[in-house]
Amino acid sequence: MDLTERLAAIVEPTISDMGYDLVRVLIQGAKHLTVQIMADRKDGALMTVDDCADISRAVSALLDVEDPISGAYNLEVSSPGIDRPLTRAKDYVTWAGFDVKVETKVLLDGRKRFSGKLMGLDEAGTAVQVHGEDGQWSIPLDAVWKAKLVLTDALIDHVTRSLPDA
């Protein structure tokens, strides 16, 4: 288990108990490490600065006790944002119908980059379905290196319509 997976295993239960879903743990930097924790509210409401602060305090205390990282690091807690990364199988279902960019770990059909409309997952739930201008692809979930939504007017409209005062 690498450090990112270990951190996710440590923080996920606490974040979940607090009413949040862990979206991703990302470690950046070589000399000056930054640990980024990205979370969503389970109730579907937008993340607030207070939500991030609450998670930051809880995770900071937890990591102080568990001490999985030797040396100093910065902890950042954030929401996924509008053009969010897609990191969980359910993300591909939730955000079906919107434009997506997917990069794979290995060559598929002679390429590693795919973009188009996200059509969700296949019936088995093991492959991402993308329909692009230059083809249609079924990309195995375990081959996805990173995926994110593309910021479009349709995505902005969808997200802003779901705001409480919209």
Q: What do these coordinates show?
A:
The chain is an alpha+beta fold and 166 residues long. The protein has 4 helices and 8 strands. It has a 5-stranded antiparallel beta sheet. Strands 1-2-3 form a 3-stranded mixed beta sheet, covered by helices on one side. Strand 6 and strand 7 (135-140) form a beta hairpin. Helix 1 (3-17) packs across helix 2. The longest helix is centred in the middle third of the chain and has 18 residues, at 49-66. The protein is globular. The protein starts with a helix and ends in a 5-residue tail after the last helix. The model has no long low-confidence stretch (mean pLDDT 93).
Largest sheet: 5 strands, antiparallel
Structural class: alpha+beta
Estimate the global geometry from the Cα principal axes. globular
Beta strand count: 8
Rg from alpha-carbon coordinates? 17 Å
Helical residues, percent: 25-40%
| Overall pLDDT | 93
- First-last Cα distance: 43 Å
Taking pLDDT < 50 over at least 5 consecutive residues as the criterion, the unreliable ranges are none
Taken as a percent bin, the fraction of beta residues is 35-45%
Spatial ordering of strands, largest sheet: 7-6-5-4-8
